[in-house]
Design goal:
heterodimer; A: mainly alpha; 2 domains; two-stranded antiparallel sheet; 2 strands; globular; B: 165 residues; 4-stranded antiparallel beta sheet; 20% helix
Amino acid sequence: MKEFFNIYTDPVYSFTFVCIAFFFMIKYVDLVATKKFGIGLMIGTVVMFVLCFMDPVFSANFYMTNDNVPIIFLVLLLAWTTWFALYKGVNNDRRMAQGLPPIEATPENREKVWAWPNLVYTELFAIILGTVFLIGWAVFFKAPLEEPANPTWAPNPAKAPWYFLGLQEMLVYFDPWLAGVLLPGLIVVGLIAIPYIDVNPKGNGYYTFRERKFAIIVYLFCWLVLWNFLIIIGTVFRGPNWSFYGPFEVWDTHKVIAANNVNISEMLWINTLGVKLPSNILVREIAGILMTLAYLVLFPLFLTKKLFNFKGTFGAIFNGGFLGKRYLQRLGWARYSILIFLVLMTLTLPIKMYLRWLINLKYIVFMPEFEFNI
Amino acid sequence: MSKRTTLNRREFFSFLSVGWIAFAAAAGGMASLIFRFLYPNVVFEPAMDFVAGRPDDFDDGVDERWKNVYGVWVYKNEGKLVALSNICTHLGCVPTWLPAERKFKCPCHGSGYYANGINFEGPAPRPLERYKVNLDASGQIIVDKTKVFRYEKGEWTHPDSFIVV
């Protein structure tokens, strides 16, 4: 059983599994958004943690860094907030389908109270309780005191604080300029841009799922699936040498993982054509450059136009035209292009992750001469 | 009783000048304090060049004796001796030398390098940098960290980047 988990938590399986689970969560959202499912989800998460901590290897690895402890609360909060929002939204959708107003618009919920004292008192107590919690925590979980800093030595594994582990995981797959500067910048800019791109006036002041399906799915995929997956992988599954270790696997520094990564240029010229790398940089990187251009041109086409005619669920994903003319007309070309650009940039992450896992790809375009690698 | 409570033009400007000069002086003092704060009181950086010993002191392969002091691995192979930087070319962490696997492995993002510094796994875009090495009059190796040689720029063939032993 433990061996099974050690094997199938490997990112290539677990990320695929998480994506499929996300797909089914959206497809059967009515089932997910029931109280029974919510209670089951919370109990299941707690039971999972208890079972994991009963294993000595898991708890030894987990407590290696003390700031892993909040991860337990955060995973519970993650499950709870996601379920709660879906529950509220689906409930309102059901009411609106019956012609009733959303629950937040009923007369008893529209009643207004004063911010002082009702809100301010609540905030005061929240602040006091939060402080008590933090002091208690600081007393019981001491910060580790390590040896003095030495610029010629690094701990193994060298882990960032948990909230940066998503970024650190991203850096495994990309050049630091992309994963450290461009993509985090785009995440911030993209989050700022959301209210300007999203012109759907529905869902203002009440929970809903059906009326904001696209926005919710895109956001939950980026945040719930992609970002949290990276943080959890970085926190629990990365051990010495930043290699992957299963949850019940001993952190052995000498675990050998064949990670001999190659660039597209080497695959084309050396492995396929059997010749030396051309000396001209543009000729050498031609395959990667063409693939990048195709991605930037063909993929927006795929998102906009219906290109295939598959039946059923398969067709809903692979026929193309996800965003379609509808969105182009509703958003206008400026918003639409920004949306497409952000979607393209987001999808580079799972694409690059799968390419690394499946064909050991290092860089698509590799020009260390100009510090330009994608 | 007709005590004047308003300022005339001349008095107003003298007050204004004093106020602005005081404000500028305070702001300038604060700025100089902040500027001074940017520079550390004590610098722990090791010297940029050092005497590493005689070429015969080193066996073939990777030698770690200067790694914790100067951040340099000495690598001797096939009659050549080079000084490798211990800074990962991906994001600047310090890789670990794994003697059993005969490779350098970075603990931050998993970049791997062969003993000669060539990157082969993980995200590192280029090989480890090499420092300038030469022999002084008494036959000792001088490692100069101010001059680096980068493989992807074809600098590893430069005569200063290695010592023939």
